[in-house]
Amino acid sequence: MKNYLFSILSLTAFSVLFFSCIMKNDQFPEAKGFVNDYENVLSFYEEKKLVKQLKEHEKKTTNQIVIVSTSTILNYKNMRQYSLALANHWGIGTKELDNGILIMFSKSKREIQIQNGLGIVDKLTGQETKNIIDSLIIPAFKKEQYFVGLSKGITEIINEIE
After folding, report:
1. What is the DSSP letter of 4?
2. How many whole angstroms separate alpha carbon 25 and alpha carbon 48?
3. What is the rounded CA–CA span in Å between residue 111 and residue 104?
4. pLDDT the model gives residue 1
5. Whether the model pTM is above 0.90
6. The pLDDT value given to residue 110
7. Cβ contacts of residue 160 below 8 Å, gap of 6+?
8. In this structure, what CATH number is given to the domain that contains residue 122?
9. Cβ atoms within 10 A of the Cβ of 3, count?
């Protein structure tokens, strides 16, 4: 009986330590605003232009589009999981309408993911998002024209959801 009790206590202690370590690694960065360029791929001017475009769109529709460049996905298996967790953590979009869009990319990892809130998917499907990535964003990114790719992608997203 003592061994059984010891095993349960040991397992409980291990679980608490394990999950507390995981939670500590989920320290998301603070949101800076509409553009969160943690890889520093955009110039000050480019960032300002994107912010202006995204603010105008939010003012017109209440939809929020946020851009994140990152070199890490913390302890997540892939960018898709990390971007979804970050979008939820930051609360992108209004709570009632769930009308947020997160565009996350990593220059160093050569990945991009767009997360659409549930209030957006009727206007912008996963397939349409994939087409925007493949036809507008990635070709510019391959030429290291990150601003051009983001600007074209955002313009098309806005055209689809307005």
Report:
1. H
2. 31
3. 8
4. 53
5. no
6. 95
7. 123, 124, 128, 132
8. 3.10.310.50
9. 7
Q: Does 17 fall in a domain?
A: no
Q: Give one word for 127, left, alpha or beta, with left for phi > 0 and alpha for psi -120 to 50.
A: alpha
Q: With a cut of 70, which residues of the chain have pLDDT below it?
A: 1-26
* Alpha-carbon span 77 to 2, nearest angstrom: 39
Q: Angle at the Cα of 122 (from 119 to 123), degrees rounded to 5? A: 95
Using CA atoms, how far apart are residues 38 and 115, in angstroms rounded to an integer? 18
Within a domain: 21:
no
Q: Which run of H or E residues covers position 103?
A: strand 100-106
Residue 7 lies in a domain: no
State residue 7's pLDDT score.
40
In terms of Cα–Cα distance, which of 112, 121, 117, 102 is closest to 34? 102
Instruction: Report the number of distinct structural domains present in the chain.
Output: 1
| pLDDT score at 11 | 41
CA pair distance 142, 136, nearest whole angstrom: 11
Around Cβ 66, how many Cβ atoms within 10 Å?
23
- Record the tokens describing residue 93, joined without a space: 């979009």
**Residue 27 pLDDT:** 87
Q: Quick check: helix, strand or coil at residue 66?
A: strand
